[in-house]
Structure formats: structure tokens, C-alpha cells
Amino acid sequence: KKIIHLDNITKNYKVGTQVVRALRTISLDIYEGEYVAIMGASGSGKSTLMNIIGCLDTPSGGTYILNERDVSRLSDNQLAEIRNAEIGFVFQVFNLLPRSTALENVMLPMVYAGVRKHDRKQRATDTLNDVGLTDRMHHRPNELSGGQRQRVAIARALVNRPSILLADEPTGNLDSVISEDIMKLFADIHRKGNTLVMVTHELDIAKHAHRIIKLKDGEVETDEINPNPVY
Ligand code: ADP
Ligand code: ADP
């Protein structure tokens, strides 16, 4: 099943009287269950593409079909609705609520999604189990290590069962041993059938994905199956 269809996507930014062409005609499809890394040098358009895929921004031109729905020209409110329903975000900074426990942080997205109160705690607990934090549920972020915080953020991103898990430099704030742990967790999440799209400028991280797309100057330079994903 096709989850993402990008057809001749362009994105221009106006800076004073200049127009920056951040994306020039990107066309690509991503299918359910794929694990994709988007790579490229600084300025190649990774964040711009990520923002469009994640419905944080709309393209200047072209068509984006997400799960059979055309999301190319939606209002901010419509985009927010789609985001909440379809996308789980993981960032370099964990964005956890500092005064809330891991469990409360993971329960929060279900409040917005209208999950019944009775079910929220159970689902959050199950998801924290899945990311290996069974014995840290009642800790606050400042009582957790960086890797554990990122696990909470990953649980929060997954708890509403999004169509895509979208990760932007997910290990950017972690040392290499902990990063590898997080990559193992991603492999696990992928194995369970989730669709993962990860933006990274590090080859060591990208080589865990099963497909690697390289951007250059706002275009797809290469789009290849990784013959030897790490896990
Ligand atoms: P990457 O994430 O690969 O570093 P970006 O998507 O951030 O690339 O940037 C692509 C191009 O678009 C760059 O030339 C960048 O300067 C420009 N750009 C990105 N965001 C903006 C913005 N909000 N306003 C103007 N130019 C931008
Ligand atoms: P709302 O639904 O009220 O518009 P936000 O715009 O704060 O809420 O967030 C909507 C989604 O976008 C959330 O899933 C959140 O994780 C994500 N998000 C928030 N801030 C950023 C950011 N700076 N970059 C990328 N994604 C973000």
C-alpha cells in the first residue's frame, strides 16, 4: 500500500526580493512498512522535504497524496488535523513536558486524539513497555538519561498508531553508543510493520535504513535500496 506519493513537488522561499528554490521537482513514493533515510548536505532541502511530508508546511507546486488523501493545498487547521492523525514526530530535541512523568508525556497525545480516559493509561503503559521503559514510567525527564528521554519521545510518537514515524536527526543529541541503541529500537519498530522516514546527515545512522534517498540542491540525487542494512 502506498502511504506517500510526491509528484513534482517544489518549494520556494521568498527572502526579500530573492526566491530560494529549496525543492525543485521531487517525485517519489513510499510504501507501507518501508524504512527510509533521507540524506544530503546542509542546505540540500532535507528539512523542507521533511516539513512537507510531515504536513508542517505545504509545497509551492506539485501534488502530495498521503494515505489516499490530497494534502497539497490544505489550511493550517486541516494540516494540524492530518498531522495528529497520521504522523508521529521524533526530533533531535526531545520536547518532553519537564514536570510530567514518562507515562503522562505518552498519554498526552491520546487526549487530543479523543481516546477514552480508561484506555489511555493502558495504551501508554504498553507503548512504554515496547520501547523498554517499563521500570521508568513514573520518572520525570530530568530523572532519565538522554537515551531514555528519546525512548519516551518515541513512545509518545507511536502511541496514536500513526501511518508514518518521522524522525529528524533522532540521534543528534546522543553519543554513539546510545545512538546505536536507538537505531536498534527503530529496527524493532520497523520489524513490527511501521513505516519509518528519518532525516539524517550521518551515514552511520542512515545505513540502518533499508532505502536511502540522497538530496542535492533540492533534487533527488540517488534513491537506492540499502543492500546491507545493519539489522
Ligand atoms: P537542509 O535541511 O538539507 O539543511 P533546508 O531544507 O533547511 O536544507 O534548506 C534548503 C534551502 O532552502 C537552503 O538554501 C535554505 O537556505 C533555504 N531555506 C530553508 N528554509 C528557509 C526559510 N524559512 N526561508 C528562506 N530560505 C529557507
Ligand atoms: P497544533 O496541532 O496545535 O498545531 P503543533 O503545531 O504544536 O500543534 O504541533 C503539531 C505537530 O507538529 C505535533 O505532532 C508536534 O510534535 C509537531 N511539531 C511541533 N513543533 C514542531 C517543529 N518545530 N518542527 C517540526 N514539528 C513540530
Describe this structure in words.
GO terms for molecular function: ATP binding; ATP hydrolysis activity; transmembrane transporter activity. One of its GO terms (cellular component) is membrane protein complex. This is Putative ABC transport system ATP-binding protein. β9 (211-216) and β10 form a beta hairpin. This protein has 7 helices and 10 strands. It is of the alpha/beta class and 231 residues long. α3 crosses α4, α3 packs parallel to α5 and α4 (117-130) crosses α5. 38% of the residues are buried. Helix content is 33%, strand content 30%. The longest helix is centred in the last third of the chain and has 16 residues, at 176-191. It has helices at 46-53, 76-86, 102-112, 117-130, 146-158, 176-191, 203-206, and strands at 2-15, 18-31, 35-40, 61-66, 69-70, 87-90, 164-168, 195-199, 211-216, 219-225. Residues 56, 80, 83-84, 89 line the site of one adenosine-5'-diphosphate (ADP).
List keywords for this structure.
231 residues; alpha/beta; 6-stranded mixed sheet; 4-stranded antiparallel sheet; 33% helix; globular; binds adenosine-5'-diphosphate
